[in-house]
Amino acid sequence: MRVRFIGSGDAFGSGGRWQTCISVTAGDLRVLVDCGATSLTAMKAQGVDPGSVDAVVLTHLHGDHFGGLPFLVLDGQFSRRVRPLRVLGPPGTGARLTQAMETLFPGSSRVERRFPVEVGELATDGTPTALGPLSVSAWQVVHECGAPPLAVRVDDGRAAFAYTGDTEWTPALAEAARGASLLAAESYTYDRPIRYHLDYRTLREHAAELDAGRIVLTHMSGAMLSRLADATHPAAHDGMTVDL
C-alpha cells in the first residue's frame, strides 16, 4: 500500500498547501481519501492522472474535503473516461453531490456519461464496506458539517491507513487507529482548543491510546505550521509518499 498526500492543507490554503486529498494505492486500485476543492489542480500539478482514480472515500461534506468531487466527475466526462467511479461517504453523500454539481454547473448532475458514478454510504459504527480488494471502515466523530462526520480506515489485509478527518478528540479515533500502519491525524492548532477540531497538545495527550504504527500530522493552520519544530510527531507535506 502506498499513501501519497496530494493535499495536506486546511480549508484556507495555509502555508500554500493544497486542501485535503490523500491517495491510497494497493495493486492497480487508487482511492482518494477526501477530495478537497483544490484536488483536481493538485493532482495535475503533481502528475497524478485523475482518470486513474477508482474511488473516493469521504470523511465529511465540507468543501475542503468534498468540494473537488464535482470537478473530478466533470474532468472524467470531458476526458472520455469509461471506468466507473465509486464514491463512499457519510449518509447524505449522494444528495450533497447532486446539490453541489447543480450549484456549480447547472444540469451537470443529469448528464448521461460514458462512466457510472456509483455513490454509497459508509456505516458509522466501524462496519467495513468492500471496495475491490480493500475494505473501508468508518466511525462517527465530532464535527459540525450537516451530515455525520467520519474517521476512516482503508485496509488491504496487509497494511491499513487511517485518517481522523476533522474532529475534536473522541474515543472513536482510538477505534479507527487500532492496528493501522499509518494514522494521519488532524492537528489544526498547536495548543489552542478549537471546537470540532483537534489540536496537537490534545493529540499528544492521547497518543498512547492510538495503536497505530506511525502518526503523521496533517490539516494544519498557519499557527500550527509555525510550531512544527516543537512537535514530536512528523508532519505531512504536499506530495509526501509513504509506503506501508
Describe the structure.
The protein has 244 residues and is of the alpha/beta class. The protein has a single domain (2-243), classed as 4-Layer Sandwich (Metallo-beta-lactamase, Chain A), CATH 3.60.15. Helices cover 20% and strands 28% of the residues. It contains seven helices and 13 strands. The chain has a seven-stranded mixed β-sheet with strand order 6-5-4-3-2-1-13. Helix 5 links the parallel strand 10 (160-163) and strand 11 (180-186). The longest helix has 12 residues, at 93-104. It is globular, with a radius of gyration of 17 Å.
Number of domains: 1
| CATH H level, superfamily name | Ribonuclease Z/Hydroxyacylglutathione hydrolase-like
Helix and strand string, N-terminal first?
Answer: EEEHEHHEHEEEEEHEHEHE
Question: Distance between termini?
Answer: 5 Å
Radius of gyration: 17 Å
CATH topology term: Metallo-beta-lactamase, Chain A
Q: Poorly predicted ranges (pLDDT <50, ≥5 residues)? A: none
Helix percentage range = 10-25%
Largest sheet: 7 strands, mixed
Give the percentage of residues in beta strands: 25-35%
Write the layout of secondary structure elements.
Blueprint: E1 2-7, E2 21-26, E3 29-33, H1 39-45, E4 55-57, H2 63-66, H3 69-78, E5 85-89, H4 93-104, E6 117-121, E7 129-131, E8 134-140, E9 150-155, E10 160-163, H5 172-177, E11 180-186, H6 200-205, E12 212-218, H7 222-225, E13 240-243
Parallel strand pairs: 3-4, 4-5, 5-6, 10-11, 11-12
Antiparallel strand pairs: 1-2, 1-13, 2-3, 7-8, 8-9, 9-10
